């Protein structure tokens, strides 16, 4: 979200959330209509689901650490203008700098490595269902570290997240780990799929930790600057590994289509999702905006089936449905119909 990320109510947008509630990205003064704002929010989360799914073919081309380095680098160039401190913003304290580093280490660097590797070992649907647990895990961490109260409905969402992941485990590993076992060798594919799910779950915990830490930064920095600074730290952390693999990688063998996909992945993760999310939140209250996070697992599954030729069995479809229900329970405002 994850990634240069998103933000999710209690939910950071895997991009805007990387700014948390710390501020918002200044947009045009032109007022957009409510339907357009809703479309922006839905598109933002649909993009998140799509780039999570499309990281699988990228991971089949580039070493994971090289891919992460390239993504942070492309995002960094695109966000150079976001690094400058606005005149009205205070100079960062030592604590703020430490929190920013921790945000980047967990929410960008480790999240990216766990997410990309996890998707490469499983499939897009699995990634979507596991990522749907983000709101529930955020609630758990907020309860454990910030002592926030968890409502019965949120406990229901947590139960749905656990059930969805359990259903995936029961569904077996058909279609998972295919990139690793191309050519018909199935030995060890079950173990790789299990490792992939564990890494995806680790990515969820990293994303949730990012969101909880982000609450400590509220009001200190703008969302744009937090996003750019965290991406810069991610680039710095991945540079030693990226340079190592870059010196040994045959870039000439990469097709133009893969380069286009990499550019889409980097810009969608770092910028487009942020812009769309913040634009939508100018009109739609944040509590209602969280409902649109259901687009993440749906989009990931759709890309997996329509673009990556993955297949769904009955158990996987049930897991996806339970995951969507859990996200709705975690994010749907109690009185959303009365909010204008």
TrEMBL record:
<feature type="transmembrane region" description="Helical">
    <location>
        <begin position="99"/>
        <end position="119"/>
    </location>
</feature>
<keyword id="KW-1003">Cell membrane</keyword>
<keyword id="KW-0472">Membrane</keyword>
<feature type="domain" description="EamA">
    <location>
        <begin position="38"/>
        <end position="169"/>
    </location>
</feature>
<feature type="transmembrane region" description="Helical">
    <location>
        <begin position="155"/>
        <end position="174"/>
    </location>
</feature>
<feature type="transmembrane region" description="Helical">
    <location>
        <begin position="194"/>
        <end position="214"/>
    </location>
</feature>
<protein>
    <recommendedName>
        <fullName>EamA domain-containing protein</fullName>
    </recommendedName>
</protein>
<dbReference type="InterPro" id="IPR037185">
    <property type="entry name" value="EmrE-like"/>
</dbReference>
<dbReference type="Pfam" id="PF00892">
    <property type="entry name" value="EamA"/>
</dbReference>
<keyword id="KW-1133">Transmembrane helix</keyword>
<feature type="transmembrane region" description="Helical">
    <location>
        <begin position="125"/>
        <end position="146"/>
    </location>
</feature>
<keyword id="KW-0812">Transmembrane</keyword>
<dbReference type="InterPro" id="IPR000620">
    <property type="entry name" value="EamA_dom"/>
</dbReference>
<feature type="transmembrane region" description="Helical">
    <location>
        <begin position="60"/>
        <end position="83"/>
    </location>
</feature>
<feature type="transmembrane region" description="Helical">
    <location>
        <begin position="226"/>
        <end position="246"/>
    </location>
</feature>
<feature type="transmembrane region" description="Helical">
    <location>
        <begin position="258"/>
        <end position="278"/>
    </location>
</feature>
<feature type="transmembrane region" description="Helical">
    <location>
        <begin position="290"/>
        <end position="308"/>
    </location>
</feature>
<dbReference type="GO" id="GO:0005886">
    <property type="term" value="C:plasma membrane"/>
</dbReference>
<feature type="domain" description="EamA">
    <location>
        <begin position="196"/>
        <end position="331"/>
    </location>
</feature>
<feature type="transmembrane region" description="Helical">
    <location>
        <begin position="314"/>
        <end position="332"/>
    </location>
</feature>
<dbReference type="InterPro" id="IPR051258">
    <property type="entry name" value="Diverse_Substrate_Transporter"/>
</dbReference>
């Amino acid at each position: 979200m994850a990634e240069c990320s998103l933000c999710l109510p209690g939910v950071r947008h895997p991009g805007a959330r990387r700014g948390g509630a710390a501020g918002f990205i200044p947009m045009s003064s032109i007022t957009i209509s409510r339907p357009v704002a809703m479309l922006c929010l839905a598109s933002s989360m649909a993009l998140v689901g799509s780039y999570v799914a499309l990281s699988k073919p990228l991971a089949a081309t580039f070493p994971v650490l090289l891919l992460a380095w390239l993504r942070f680098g492309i995002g960094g160039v695109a966000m150079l203008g976001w690094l400058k401190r606005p005149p009205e913003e205070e100079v960062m304290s030592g604590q703020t700098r430490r929190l920013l580093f921790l945000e980047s280490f967990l929410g960008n660097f480790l999240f990216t490595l766990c997410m990309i590797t996890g998707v490469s070992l499983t499939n897009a649907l699995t990634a979507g269902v596991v990522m749907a647990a983000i709101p529930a895990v955020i609630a758990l961490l907020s309860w454990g570290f910030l002592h926030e109260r968890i409502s019965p409905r949120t406990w229901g969402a947590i139960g749905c997240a656990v059930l969805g992941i359990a259903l995936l485990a029961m569904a077996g590993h058909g279609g998972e780990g295919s990139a690793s076992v191309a050519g018909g060798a199935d030995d060890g594919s079950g173990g790789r799929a299990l490792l992939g799910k564990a890494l995806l779950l680790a990515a969820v915990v990293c994303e949730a930790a990012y969101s909880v830490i982000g609450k400590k930064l509220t009001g200190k920095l703008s969302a744009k600057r937090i996003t750019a600074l965290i991406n810069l730290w991610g680039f710095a952390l991945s540079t030693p590994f990226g340079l190592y693999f870059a010196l040994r990688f045959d870039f000439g063998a990469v097709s133009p289509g893969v380069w286009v996909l990499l550019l889409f992945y980097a810009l969608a993760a770092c910028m487009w999702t942020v812009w769309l999310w913040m634009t939508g939140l100018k009109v739609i209250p944040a509590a209602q905006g969280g409902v649109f996070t259901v687009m993440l697992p749906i989009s990931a599954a759709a890309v997996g089936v329509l673009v990556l030729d993955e297949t769904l069995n009955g158990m996987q479809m049930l897991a996806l449905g339970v995951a969507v229900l859990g996200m709705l329970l975690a994010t749907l405002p109690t009185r959303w119909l009365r909010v204008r």
